[in-house]
Amino acid sequence: MGFVSIGDFFFFLPPIFSSSFASSTRSLSFSFVSFSFFFFILMYTLASPSISQKDRPSKEKLYLRFDLWFTPFSQILSQMDKPPLHPHHESISSRWSSVSFKDNKEVTFSDLGSKRIRHGSAGADSEMLSMSQKEIKDEDARLIYINDPDRTNETFDFTGNSIKTAKYSVFTFLPRNLFEQFHRVAYVYFLVIAVLNQLPQLAVFGRGASIMPLAFVLLVSAIKDAYEDFRRHRSDRVENNRLALVFEDNEFKEKQWKYIRVGEVIKVVSNQTLPCDMVLLATSDPTGVVYVQTTNLDGESNLKTRYAKQETLQKATDDLETFDGFIKCEKPNRNIYGFQANMEIDGRRLSLGPSNIILRGCELKNTEWALGVVVYAGSETKAMLNNSGAPSKRSRLETRMNLEIILLSLFLIALCTTAAATAAVWLRTHRDDLDTILFYRRKDYSVRPEGKNHNYYGWGWEIFFTFFMAVIVYQIMIPISLYISMELVRIGQAYFMTRDDLMYDESSNSSFQCRALNINEDLGQIKYLFSDKTGTLTDNKMEFQCACIGGVDYSDREPPEITLKPKMRVRVDPSLLQLTRNGNATEEAKHANEFFLSLAACNTIVPIVTNTSDPNVKLVDYQGESPDEQALVYAAAAYGFLLIERTSGHIVINVRGEMQRFNVLGLHEFDSDRKRMSVILGCPDTSVKLFVKGADSSMFSVMDEESYGDVIEATKKQLHAYSSDGLRTLVVGMRKLNDTEFEQWHSSFEAASTALIEEANASVASDDDDESVALIIDGTSLIYVLDNDLEDVLFQVACKSSAVLCCRVAPFQKAGIVALVKNRTSDMTLAIGDGANDVSMIQMADVGVGISGQEGRQAVMASDFAMGQFRFLVPLLLVHGHWNYQRMGYMILYNFYRNAVFVLILFWYVLFTCYTLTTAITEWSSVLYSVVYTSFPTIVIGILDKNLGRRILLSHPQLYGVGQRAEGYSTTLFWYTMFDTVWQSAAIFFIPLFAYWGSTIDTSSLGDLWTIAAVVVVNLHLAMDVIRWNWIAHAAIWGSIVAACICVVVIDVIPTLPGYWAIFQVAKTWMFWFCLLAIVVTALLPRFAIKFLVEYYRPSDVRIAREVEKLRSFSESQQNMGTEMNQIRDPSRS
Fold first, then answer.
1. How much is the average pLDDT of 74-91?
2. What does the angle CA 272 – CA 278 – CA 283 come to, to the nearest 5 degrees?
3. Based on CB atoms within 10 Å of each CB, which residue in 386, 398, 792, 917 is the most buried?
4. Catalytic center residues
């Protein structure tokens, strides 16, 4: 079964395909018994505790709910406890005066005095909140003296602004890099083998030959790591040497970033990147607003607003030299969405929040300049604290492979023990003849008459040495070349995935990206799919469709397109458009106008006016943090409510050709606690109105059901109808405020704004209306489940459901659901999303896929694979996932097979040479066998071979179950391969042995025959399994056989090497060629017969599909031939 996070709507789907999947345990054991038995015990335990969090339910909570439909309410918010607002106040009073200028109307308060607008924190996903909003204790705080870095850094030891992302230095590179590389246990194994071979008593191969393979692998990896770290050093130097304007000696001077200190005042101009985290003091905007782009920080490309305190604006601009104050803030933490601090200035204490700080990496936009004081620098900035990168993931197939490596290690120990034991028996049996026996001769009589022992250490030591010599001789039983081959195959697979035209997105001009090359084959074993919906499935392209206002449905589905001045073209409902043009003539028209006014005003959109080719026409482009808000504002413009200007204190809206100014008396952006957005506007008619938008679950809870019950019921029905059509919904409401209500709220908010009160740490992912599925659970219920040890119950129920939808869930809950599944099953999981709120889910899953959507690139940066459209997931899994898994599984088994064949040939030889571990095959052929003779073909086949075509895989998705059921690689297949290996090695060894028995052939000639025969057999074995031949496959397989023969010839023509001219002596006889033919037939005939019987009488799904594919290709070719014949046939003869 599986989870699909459809959207901010979180989906839990049952297994992609119903099948059993015996997957390996997540806890991996890999043993390497002491240095003499060449394997260690390595235990990986991956435990992801379920994430839970207390929630404080109240009627102020709102779960943001966006479908493609936006449904409003008007004048039915009569029972709110108090209007929740963002601290924005500017020139507010209880009595209004209206001033008209030309077409503009301005409204101001006059009685409450001049009270500035305050800006509260913007809501955001808060899974990473490291500190709740609370009073900052002295031990948890740092003190920054504004414009006094000497005093600041004298009292506290703050870090500098220099950053370092490089891993190594000149002195630490060699030891640290080697330490990291030897975390791969196989490397330790080969290091031990190389060390053993350096001992004179154990030397079997040349000392250089035994070290060369490991040294080559280590050198290549070290060069790659050194180059990557050199690039990091170069990037660090560029970053640290950038220049910034720092206030020193009563003027702003350029200073390198690395020398900036905490407490200094920085000036940033438009389009510049911030060098550190700084609290805003002043901006070029008189209201203190500044616009920033956080693409470098969180991948979001939309503009965000930050604000300077009104109390610091004038002072920081006019008299910065005498600016006296300090900031008491929380210690550095990773939470990019939260900031808690207090500022003391002129005896006043001001509270600071996330809207008052700009983080390192942000870019200043649409603002001439901004001044700020440095609070966090260098490695203590939030950007650097979050610069940990995606977690390291390991292929499931490679994890399973370690079990077979353990089995091969045990088999190797068995071979070495057999060799040592038989040597012991032979030594004891011939102990009286050791001095003179042929080929052994314990004594050397050429030195003195009584003879001298040839390094003979006694019966016990000889057995000990024999065991370790066997370890060295049989070392390639664990193939070091396998790891290199796997990396090369993955690179080749990634190349073809990125070049796949079916996964190329023309709209964004982006190709598929492989960001993690070590888990390609995991794409073919996914059983649980978690998917975000909003943006991922809906592509984040929002368009206003229809509305229900006051219970009246306006949903003309085929309206004519009307081109308006806004940059985006929006379809409108003719009847609703006509209704808005009637002004306030009727109650229905009044509701419609208030609805679109709320869409234009209740948002954080920044209007940008751009020129056109016609100097009399200008287009208004809307930039904001959310594509949902952009769609709403464009819809309002289409109906005659064109947002023209926005500042922290007012907004200007062109209402059907009339410029109207609305004072912003209070603004509360959407946050994770209230789940709503609210704004208080001072309207041109001197009224004060509260506009609120949010999801139906939170909006209905604050409605006056007694007074507006009929409207609520009618709207709920329309919500259900809209959501049934797959549209996203939103509820909008308005309420008039009298002077008493506003003053009561204002005084309460003023008191609350000076204190930091603990808040619930929850966040929101947008959701959709519940649809017809087996199980639906919302965020509040999920918190209860994860908090009360009910995960097992949820998992059991989910396993029996056709699908599970988790609605209105926070990012940490998404990760919790993934962990819930991973901790209770060994099956593979995949998570896909496009927003910053999907990162935790993507990183928690075995495979994470990011989509380049309108919500930024943070999901892409945290993912293992990235693509432009959700629909590309189908070919990625069903086609490339299937291919990658089948190729890699076969390649691993083939590597075990080809090395074991060679080792067993050496073992059989020992049984006929007094168990002395001598070899007939030269040491160079032993080294080159797995590196040159047989490695290239398996890499080529691992990249290019296809057991099935793309079309058959897409048309029969059940074939994906091959990977889920581990049919391409399993312990059973491993043992079948090993039994075949024993037979083939016996055929290769014993046929020449008996053919030349009693002859005068030397061992070197026989060794060359065994070498060439082994190379021919293992390559023909591979050729029998190739499905789709091409010229590269032919060149790789047959070319490797030719290359092996050439190498044997070259080795034998070198006089200083053993076996000089041996190949020429044996190859000129007919027996040599007869033996080769007999070996091939004898070794491969049983495999061919079994392969035929299994595929004919018990064919697999893949085999059946392959036959279907052949028949389909044949049928189509016949049809094409017939079509071609009809086209060229002479009509006169028909």
1. 36
2. 65
3. 917
4. 532
